[in-house]
Design brief:
434 residues, globular, 11 helices, hydrolase, alpha+beta, 17% strand
């Protein structure tokens, strides 16, 4: 039985009082207990002031039966789906899934996620993209975009998937899958709301350059529900680098609640564990592809050939990103997607420890912006955000290592044969816009 000090018990009552005093956020007793056990100063500062740091956590225990069938139990800390956080790059996960789903539904003979594609422009703000020198054949493809979006969180990859699927189709599909509170309204470039409603003409081409399939430019006439106001901070820097002394308004920006994000990742890792309508229309080969690039390290990858020093193993693995040690524990792989912008850091992960036969999911978002000014690039990512998420990751990982299970999981489904970096003369890719 776990023993708690007097201070831990007092802290537990403080945490539970937070949950009672505010009827919306959900905090489970187990999470309140676990949050008292890590004495790290940054960790305790954040967990004792969850509203200041806009903190939300979901810890998912996974237990297997004798037939290796998993069951899931979620534990929450300060979870509130109505409490806005900027999702930043985590929206790249649903865009990747919807892109694969769209290709499968097109049912065009010879067209798959590796088929070369090109983007034209047909409306204000749009740009063309006909080549991609980081791919094996020099052309863009959905598969290559997904790699770039997962491995280093490349922004152009997201923009192109947004343009392929289309704003209307993105939102209708996510709402139909049971995520009504999600909202994808824009690319990651400066464009007006009207420009973001328009998406580019796209074509897929054969190896000889001939046209395989053409998709015309599209427009989204559907209205968005902007009734829930989402304002953050005390001020922000505008496009002219002038300080505006009022909160920044995210009401019309992307929205992806943490619980929906966690469910999307679970639907990929364990499709049968979610209702049928929440699953994406993916093939078994799609799932294998996703598992590989959700967990592969940038330095293992040949196309793109990322600089393994700049994009180290834990670069997009926030729960294992230590400032002094950039490698994961032996036998551990993390299948995840992260996002960071405007002082928000977010991660949803499935962790598989093949050495110790341990698995679990952990999702969290935190906001670190002490001066309250957004868009000034003065955020406490390195001094507060990353240390907190690392300590949270270690707290749950150590708890999982000690947690008793009736049956150890068979994790062979997720045991991936990863790439090995080739020795060639191609320059490495650095300084990606992410």
């Amino acid at each position: 039985m776990r023993k708690f000090s007097l201070n831990s018990i007092v802290s537990l009552f403080i945490f539970l009082s937070i949950s009672v005093a505010h009827s919306q956020p959900k905090t489970h007793v187990l999470m309140a207990q676990l949050m008292t056990e890590n004495p790290h100063a940054v960790f305790q500062e954040v967990v004792r002031h969850p509203e200041k740091y806009r903190l939300q956590i979901i810890y998912t225990q996974i237990d297997r039966d004798k037939n290796n069938k998993p069951s899931f139990k979620n534990f929450y800390f300060n979870l509130d789906s109505t409490f806005y956080f900027n999702p930043a790059s985590i929206v790249k996960l649903p865009l990747a899934l919807l892109s694969l789903e769209k290709i499968n539904k097109l049912e065009v003979n010879g067209l798959d996620k590796f088929t070369s594609m090109q983007f034209d422009s047909a409306f204000s703000g749009q740009t063309k993209e006909w080549k991609d020198e980081t791919s094996p054949n020099g052309f863009p493809s959905i598969g290559h975009f997904i790699k770039k979006a997962f491995l280093v969180s490349d922004n152009d990859a997201y923009n192109r998937m947004y343009e392929f699927v289309g704003q209307q189709a993105i939102n209708r599909a996510l709402h139909a899958k049971g995520y009504p509170d999600t909202r994808i309204t824009h690319r990651f470039v400066r464009m007006t709301p009207e420009e973001n409603r328009h998406t580019n003409p796209v074509r897929f081409i054969r190896e000889d350059g001939s046209l395989l399939y053409a998709q015309p430019a599209t427009y989204n006439p559907d209205p968005f529900d902007f009734s829930r106001i989402a304002k953050v901070g005390e001020g922000y820097m505008n496009a002219k680098d002038s300080l505006i002394n009022e909160p920044i308004d995210f009401t019309m920006r992307n929205k992806l609640p943490l619980e929906a994000f966690q469910q999307m990742l679970q639907s990929v890792m364990f499709p049968l564990s979610v209702p049928a309508k929440q699953r994406f229309d993916l093939t078994q080969e799609d799932y294998k592809f996703l598992y590989q690039y959700l967990s592969q390290f940038p330095g293992e990858t040949n196309y793109p050939k990322y600089d393994g020093t700049q994009y180290y193993d834990s670069y997009v693995k926030f729960f294992f990103q230590d400032s002094t040690h950039h490698q994961l524990p032996e036998g551990v792989r993390v299948f995840n997607k992260v996002g960071w912008a405007y002082g928000f850091l977010t991660d949803a992960s499935y962790v598989a420890d093949f050495k110790n036969k341990v698995e679990y999911m952990l999702s969290a978002t935190v906001y670190v912006n002490s001066d309250g000014i957004l868009n000034d690039n003065k955020y406490e990512y390195e001094s507060m955000g990353h240390p907190f998420l690392y300590q949270l990751g270690q707290t749950i990982y150590q708890y999982e290592l000690a947690r008793k299970r009736a049956y150890r999981p068979n994790l062979s489904k997720f045991n991936i044969r990863y790439e090995k970096r080739m020795n060639d003369n191609r320059p490495v890719v650095k300084d990606v816009d992410n």
